[in-house]
Design goal:
Oligomer: single chain
Helix content: 40-55%
Radius of gyration: 21 Å
Strand content: 25-35%
Distance between the termini: 24 Å
Number of strands: 6
Structural class: alpha+beta
Order of helices and strands: EHEEEEHEHH
Largest sheet: 4 strands, mixed
Number of helices: 4
Shape: elongated
């Protein structure tokens, strides 16, 4: 399951970070079946494609968190230096989750509802990590000053380097989080077992 990131909360909230909010959306893909086994097989067949395995076969996820991040930045030359006065993010997070196409029996629906809630909670952790990453970018960006940069080119290079570091950290944190969640005794391993076996 490719789910985007969990970064450690190293940044305390500040007024500079309080003036933006992410847009969160939920997208669903239809799965078929009347039993838990049929539903789970359908997830494997219809889940979002997240890449290919070494043999070239499509790899699919149960659920997926995707984000689109754009910026409005105000660079100002000041006395030969360049100052980044404002950096306002526009962050759209989309959670893709499975949804049964047909009506389920009460017993199957109860197990499905518990499974679906667990999946959504897992994705929300990734969403929270994305927001934390963007907060870190804002904190680093606003007020950033680079000397001897009247054309505001050096400052862009410095910012790009920082964003690249954060992006790599995000992807690694995502992989680490999912490894724990899917590992022995992990929350998602338990969630899947509970859905398929019950109890």
């Amino acid at each position: 399951m490719k789910l985007v990131l969990l970064l450690a909360a190293l940044l305390l909230p500040s007024p500079a970070l309080a003036d933006w909010k992410p847009v969160e959306k939920v997208a669903t893909y239809a799965i078929s079946g009347q039993t838990v086994e049929e539903l789970y097989v359908s997830i494997g067949e219809k889940g979002p494609v997240i890449g290919k395995d070494p043999a070239g076969n499509e790899r699919r996820a149960i659920a997926h968190t995707f984000f689109k991040l754009t910026w409005q930045r105000d660079y100002r030359p000041e006395g030969g230096a360049c100052v980044l006065k404002t950096a306002r993010p526009k962050l759209i997070i989309t959670y893709t989750l499975p949804k049964p196409a047909g009506k389920l029996s009460p017993a199957v629906k109860a197990r499905w509802d518990s499974f679906a809630a667990g999946l959504a909670a897992h994705e929300k952790v990734h969403g929270a990590g994305i927001v934390e990453m963007v907060d870190k970018i804002v904190a680093f960006s606003v007020g950033l000053t680079v000397a001897d940069d009247p054309g505001c080119t050096k400052i862009r290079a410095e910012l790009t380097q920082y964003l690249d570091q954060l992006s790599k950290a995000q992807r690694q944190a995502s992989r680490d989080f999912d490894k724990v969640e899917f590992g022995p005794g992990g929350n998602l391993q338990k969630l899947i077992a509970g859905f398929l076996i019950g109890g």
